[in-house]
Each structure stands twice: as C-alpha cells, then as structure tokens.
Design brief:
Blueprint lengths: L1 E8 L3 H12 L4 E5 L12 E2 L1 H7 L5 H7 L5 E6 L2 E5 L15 E2 L2 H14 L4 E3 L2 E8 L2 E7 L5 E11 L6 H6 L3 E18 L5 E7 L2 E7 L6 E6 L14 H12 L4 E18 L3 E2 L2 E3 L5 E2 L7 H20 L9 H26 L3 H18 L3 H12 L12 E2 L25 H4 L5 E6 L7 H10 L4 E6 L7 H10 L8 E5 L5 E6 L4 H10 L6
Parallel strand pairs: 1-2, 1-10, 2-7, 4-12, 10-17, 19-23, 20-21
Antiparallel strand pairs: 3-6, 4-5, 8-9, 9-10, 11-14, 11-15, 12-13, 13-14, 15-18, 16-17, 20-22, 22-23
C-alpha cells in the first residue's frame, strides 16, 4: 500500500488548482482522474477577477490573461433591433484584473496542467476511485488503473474534485440535495457568419435567449440555446448542425449562418448542493460540492476558490501548525458562498428561461430598452460587476475573522479580501502578500513599532509568517503610501496592523501598536511558535 499526504480525485480546474497550491506549500500530493485526457472543449469560458488574483500565486495568471480575451462588449438583440451595452470598461480600483476574462476551460486546464508538470507533479489519468475506507487519522482509497491494476493508497486527507457525479462524495456518504431543471440545452463550439467579433451577443425572444460568446479557440464562437420545452431529447442524443441552425434561426431571423462545428452536445442543468463539505478526513470542492446553472459564470470560479480556501488549511494541519478546528472553517466559510451562488444563478436562469407571460414580456419588451439605460452609469456597472466578479466575497462570520482593539471604522474588515494598491517602493499589496503564507502588515510611522518585538514574532513563526512594514518613507512617496493606507482604512499618521491569511483574506486587525490580541490569535490558529 502506498502513502500520500493528500489524494486529490479529479483533474479539472478545481483539482488542478488544489494540487498546485498544495505542491507550492510542500505537501506530498497525488492527482488522479478517471478520464484519459483533459477536456478539449470550451465548457466553462469566463474567469472572474478574484480567480485571477488567487491563481497569481502559482504564476499562471499572466499566461491566462495573455491567451484570453478581456476586451469584450455585450450586444443585445431583440425585436429586430440591436444595442451595444458597455460592461467591462470600469477601471475598478483595488484589483489588477478589473475585467471578465473570456478563456476556454480547455486552455485553463492546459495552463494549470503545464504548471504542475513544471513543478514535478504528474496527473495520473485513467485512474478511477472505486473504494474509500475512512478512519480517524485518514483514509484508504481503492484505485483502479486503466490496465486493470488495483492499488490501495493511504492518505491523510482525500479531496473530491471529481464533479457532479463525484465518487468521493458517494463513497463518503455525503448527500447531494436539489433537482434538475426541466429544459434541455444545446452547447456548440463553432463558426458563425453575421456577428461582430470580439462581442458577446444575446438574442432575446419570448421563448428564451440565445447566446454567442467569443472564444477564439478551439472555435471563434460558443453557442448556448434552449430547446423548445415540448421537445424531449436525451442528453446523450447526437446533435446535428442542421438542428442547431434551425434553433438559431428562430432567434436571429436567419441572419446568422453556422458552420465548422468542433463540438456540439445536449445537456441538462441541475441545482444541487452537498449536505456537508467535510466528512472526517474527506473534503469536497467545486462541482462535487455544488452545481448550478452557468448564469453569471460562477461555477468554475467558485470551485477554484474552494480549492484555494482549503489548500492552505490542509497544509497547515499537516505541518502541525493548526488547531483541530481550523479545517472546520472550510465548510463554515465556503458553504454559504455555494448557497449564495445557487440562489443567484437560479434567479438569473429563471429570468432567462421562464415561459410566464409577464416574464416573457419583460424579457423581450422592457429589458432591451431598460438595460442600456441602467448600465450607462459606470457606478451601476461597477456595482453589478463586483457582485459577479466574486471580489466582494467575505468570511466575516468565520471564527478566523477577529477584530482587535480600536480597529478602523472604514476599510476592509476581518474576513474581507485584502484590496490591492501600489506601494511606495514599487510593487503592490497583492504582490507583497502573494506567497501562500500568513502576512503581517504593520502600518504607521516608522517609530511606532518596536523592532525587538516584531523581530521576535517573525522569528517565532518564521516557517509560516512574513512581516511587512507599510510606512511613509519620505515626502516624495507620501501620496502612494497614503493611498495604500486609505485602502486599508487608515489615515496618514495613524497606526494599525493587519494579519493576512494565505488565501488573501484578512484574519485579524487592530488599531494602534498593541500586539497582545495578535499574539493570542496566532497562538490559537497557528498553535505554539517554534522553539
């Protein structure tokens, strides 16, 4: 029987991100997937800003941005008229990625897979999980290889990133509650004549919506359309180009000609959530924990952020630098996010597909006129974008989120994501805290902090904590320093400290220079310092 610290089952984006983070933290990890190859279809096709932020620590974000398309407009078509709606020209502060990146899932998996190969981690394909025995100190997984060989693997932790039909979830006895939508949809990656390139097109009608999303690779366009409700088609039934053309014609008045399909399929949508994200040493992430409609491009992004939230906690638990309750915070923090995404996507899906006369009237008559007017406001666009971009996700109700004495009345609170800002010496707050370790930001005038106390603290937790000083070094750099401090809610000349978790969220903050509360927090969540 072989042994490993973490066994990741599933090599989609969630599993690849999980393995990448664990490897970066020095964890012995194996990744297995029953498929013999990665996906080559587009599937998920949009990457949110927060996902680009959390993947930056792996060094893959720059390539994703270079390959993807971030200059996308939206064009609404209804009743023979078309209107272009500005969406992503926002220039949002606080992030280096103020846009939605259109990128095929095939490319996302390729980039993450190449990263794993570069750090010496192989993806074991054609390997299926067929059994799982849980124990108090780990689990024993039964694997079946493509050649029929059986293998038993002892793992301290098993993470199921194996999708909606998760074998890990089933073998762990975790429920999966929800249901299926009645509609059948068609997905296709193909070429389409008659559409402006570099633009997302939405055709609104009483029967629903037809979407064309710009891909570039493996085809120029991704098409998504709903079949008529009375049309009962098995998801496994083959799809022909003539069928797809006929469906598109009902929305476009035959103004768009389809050709060159690379991939076409029927599919059904489900809305389900796992009853728990953890069963002892077994965890679920991504579609294994929650599935929903593609509205708002939330699925893959939520899964990757599940992985980032869990990865550092597993690593810290394995290295003895965590309390027994740290791993419990994974479900505490991520299950509410999963439920929120389910509610959001369900409401958006209902608006897009409902046959209710009032909804159909609003979709075809009111929305085409109202949406361009409403989105003409940059403030409205920024607020709407922040909702779907996942930049606003917070863990304020987590036991990991603690306010110390005299915290700032403004700025991010414990549980919130650390905002980005340029720093006087160059770089940014996010680059400063990019490594998946704990980061302590000491803010205020240089004389405010006792060098002996901070050096001692840094030495005690040297294996997991970096200490940084955010000060105003001289007048020429005062404006840049003041901007960074304002992003944290601090006025120039005031002092405060912020403890940043390895996933970029604030764990602890306080005003002034008293470190008593910080020391208590570190002792609770990072256990005793090294001797």
């Amino acid at each position: 029987m072989s042994a490993v610290e973490v066994l990741v089952v599933g090599a989609g984006p969630t599993g690849l991100a999980m393995a990448g983070q664990l490897a970066a933290l020095g964890v012995r990890v194996r990744v297995v997937d029953r498929s013999v190859d990665r996906v080559h279809e587009s599937r998920a096709l949009a990457v949110q800003p927060r996902t680009l932020e959390v993947l930056a620590s792996l060094g893959v974000t720059d390539e994703m941005v270079a390959v993807g398309n971030r200059a996308v407009r939206l064009r609404l078509h209804a009743r023979g008229r078309a209107r272009t709606v500005p969406l992503f020209d926002l220039g949002l502060s606080g992030t280096a990625y103020p846009y939605l990146l259109f990128l095929s899932q095939a490319e996302t998996e390729r980039i993450l897979g190449e990263h794993l190969a570069a750090v010496g981690l192989d993806i074991e394909r054609g390997v299926e999980l067929v059994g799982l025995d849980r124990a108090a100190d780990g689990a024993v997984a039964m694997l079946r290889h493509g050649d029929g060989r059986a293998e038993r693997v002892a793992a301290r932790y098993v993470v199921g990133c194996d999708g909606a039909h998760s074998a890990v979830r089933h073998l762990a006895g975790i429920g999966f509650e929800g249901g299926a939508y009645p509609q059948t949809f068609v997905l296709a990656d193909l070429e389409a004549d008659g559409l402006d390139t570099g633009t997302a097109h939405v055709f609104l009608s009483e029967r629903g919506m037809l979407f064309f999303f710009p891909l570039g690779h493996p085809s120029t366009w991704r098409l998504l359309v709903m079949r008529p409700p009375a049309e009962v088609v098995s998801p496994d039934a083959p799809v022909t180009l003539d069928e797809v053309q006929a469906l598109a014609d009902t929305y476009t008045a035959a103004t768009v000609r389809l050709h060159g399909p690379v991939w076409m399929t029927n599919f059904r949508l489900h809305h389900r959530a796992a009853t728990h994200y953890r069963a002892g040493s077994v965890f679920l992430a991504g579609d294994a924990a929650h599935i929903h409609s593609p509205a708002g491009a939330q699925g893959m992004n939520t899964g990757i952020q599940d992985a980032v939230n869990l990865g550092w906690k597993l690593a810290q638990a394995l290295r003895g630098g965590a309390t027994s309750t740290l791993l419990d915070t994974y479900e505490t923090e991520r299950a509410p996010v999963g439920r929120m995404v389910l509610r959001f996507s369900d409401r958006a899906f209902t608006v897009a597909t409902s046959t209710n006369p009032a909804v159909r009237f609003a979709r075809t008559r009111i929305a085409p006129a109202l949406i361009p007017v409403v989105l003409a406001s940059r403030f409205v666009r920024a607020s709407a974008f922040r909702t779907v971009s996942q930049l606003g996700i917070s863990y304020r109700n987590s036991p990991l989120s603690v306010d110390g004495p005299r915290p700032s009345r403004t700025g991010p609170r414990p549980g919130d994501r650390l905002p980005n800002a340029p720093l006087p010496e160059g770089g940014t707050l996010h680059r400063l805290t990019a490594t998946p370790r704990w980061h302590l930001l000491l803010c205020g005038p240089p004389p405010a902090w006792s060098s002996g106390e901070t050096v001692t603290l840094s030495q005690q937790y040297s294996d997991r904590l970096d200490v940084h000083w955010l000060t105003e070094p001289d007048a020429s750099e005062a404006a840049t320093a003041a901007h960074a401090l304002r992003q944290l809610g601090l006025a120039p000349g005031s002092s405060g400290l912020y403890l940043i978790r390895p996933d970029g969220h604030i764990g602890y903050r306080s005003g002034g220079t008293d470190m008593t509360g910080l020391v208590t927090y570190l002792q609770r969540w990072l256990r005793s310092p090294l001797p």
